[in-house]
Design a protein that fits this description.
Layout lengths: L1 H21 L3 H17 L8 H16 L2 H6 L1 H21 L9 H7 L2 H15 L10 H9 L9 H16 L3 H5 L2 H7 L9 E3 L10 H5 L21 H5 L5 E3 L7
Antiparallel strand pairs: 1-2
């Protein structure tokens, strides 16, 4: 089982690295498409299709058909979070002998997951009311895009830089800190009507007695049943399937597993 988990992590890390190098601004571009729509509405202008919306539409379609694989494998912000979390876990294990997964209690994780919807609503309302122009320089993902493009943020982006640093600190304390709690694009993805075949499911009768490895390994603390109210929070990292000792978790419909 450990070899299977290691294999899944290595494959995922390799894919993340490729996307991080080749397309680090996908997240910012996708959300820019959504902002452009609400900025046009707020300015009482005609909503026109643009290059940002091409990326937004593509990622939304992929999410509906295949789940949030973009979040789990292709988002540079998420990949940064995974790297910082794993680095912190490695340091904890080497320096303090703490090998267990660290993070927040399940109750707090589910509560904090709602914060990203508040952030999304605030940003979209800011776009519609014209307040968004006053937020220039405060966006941590704009600063992140500059850094990944090899540019140092200017003094006007001081607030955004500080917020990015604070988010990176949070990434060290909880797996997928930004994605789960703060990401406005993650909130959009979580509200998408994901097709049933794109959700992880398990054949509960075939589970080992009192086994909760899938839930313990899930960064979002989800019950892997395919129809949980939190299913939109699944980032398709495949950690649950890799952790299952009976290989009892699959994506798509499950009839019987013997």
């Amino acid at each position: 089982m450990k070899k299977r988990q290691q294999k899944v992590r290595l494959i995922r890390a390799a894919i993340q690295l490729i996307f991080f190098i080749a397309a680090p601004s996908l997240f910012s571009t996708a959300f820019a498409g959504i902002k452009s729509v609400f900025l046009a509405i707020g300015g009482q202008q005609t909503v026109t299709w643009n290059s940002f919306l091409n990326i937004t539409a593509l990622l939304l379609i992929i999410t509906i058909l295949f789940g949030r694989h973009f979040c789990g494998y292709a988002c540079a912000f998420g990949s940064l979070g995974d790297a910082l979390y794993e680095l912190t876990a490695f340091i904890r294990a080497k320096c303090f002998g703490k090998k267990k997964k660290h993070g927040y209690p399940e109750k707090w994780v589910h509560r904090l997951q709602k914060v990203k919807y508040v952030i999304l609503a605030f940003l979209l309302l800011s776009c519609m009311t014209g307040f968004y122009s006053k937020l220039q320089g405060m966006s941590p993902w704009d600063v992140f895009s500059m850094v990944t493009a090899g540019k140092l943020p200017k003094a006007a982006y001081l607030v955004g830089t500080v917020l990015l640093i604070l988010i990176m600190v949070g990434m060290c304390t909880q797996e997928r800190f930004f994605c789960q709690f703060l990401c406005p694009m993650g909130a959009v993805f979580a509200m998408m009507p994901i097709l049933p075949g794109a959700l992880f499911k398990r054949n509960r009768p075939n589970c080992a007695p009192k086994c909760t490895l899938c839930k313990k390994r899930c960064p979002a603390h989800l019950d892997i049943d395919g129809d949980t109210a939190h299913s939109g929070e699944c980032i398709c990292c495949h950690a649950c399937a890799a952790a299952c000792p009976r290989q009892n978790i699959h994506m798509g419909e499950i009839n019987t597993i013997k």
